[in-house]
UniProtKB/TrEMBL annotation:
Transcription regulation listed as a keyword: yes
Protein family according to the UniProt entry: Belongs to the LysR transcriptional regulatory family.
Keyword terms: DNA-binding, Transcription, Transcription regulation
One Pfam family it belongs to: LysR_substrate
Protein name: LysR family transcriptional regulator
Protein's organism: Lysinibacillus alkalisoli
Amino acid sequence: MSIIKYEIVNKVAMENSFTQAAQVLGLTQSAVSHAISSLEKQYGFALFHRNRAGLTITPEGEAMLRQMRRVLEAEELVQQEATNLLGVATGTIRIGVISSISSSWMPGIIHMMDQRFPGIKIELREGDYYEIERWLMNGEIEAGFLNTFESEQFQYMPLRKDPLLCVVSEQSGFYHHTQIDIHELQDVPFILIDYRGDNDVRRLLASYHVKPYIRFLLSEEVGVLSMIKHHLGITILPQLSINALPRGLRVIPLQQGSYRTIGLALRKNPSPATKQFVAVLQDWIDEQYENRIPSSPFLR
């Protein structure tokens, strides 16, 4: 069936490997290779480039994959609606998460989902804001946690304000401060957490026209905190990113009370399973936080 072949193409594109796609789908590598070759023969062009360097999708393959994902999404919606009419919630939800959400929020949310809707399977893909936006637009995920998102196809639901806090070492002149005025960071040695997409810290500094002396750009919070522990500078991080603070470091709020917004981007017409996930997400946030940002009521 074409649906099966489309799923194979989708997994190969996501995994960039025939072998890994076969393992995920529970098929042999030869079955995966045969399905791809069959479609390529049918269409008259290659879907993937195969060489010693690895596997890459062709421009023609990308165009076909977008349409295949629409078919796969429609098939998933049909199956979910059928079970929903029978009063049984099933389906698969693919969700894009940033690292701080996967470590601090998702364990509790998934536990609640398993209790309420054991028939719904959740797949997580961790990335930065840029990757999550791309996965949403390409149809690789149904929903994604972002700090902002604008698209005619999607809605963005603000969920929680996450404070942006300074992290300093015991040798820093700020160590005994109860608050830090962001303007005091001008020309101060700074370790910046850097990622693609809308960078909350860069945006904050630019909004106050503050230019610290950026010594290092790092992509992981662990590396940033290690640099600070060795007295190489200070940083600003979201509160959710600071799960375990190394000894000798201190978190200090900014006088300006700055924060990032955590929200969920999803299609304007989400699947039944996605609606159930959003309802559980909102309930979980209500249990954890007293002041949740009011979100769209249509999913209630």
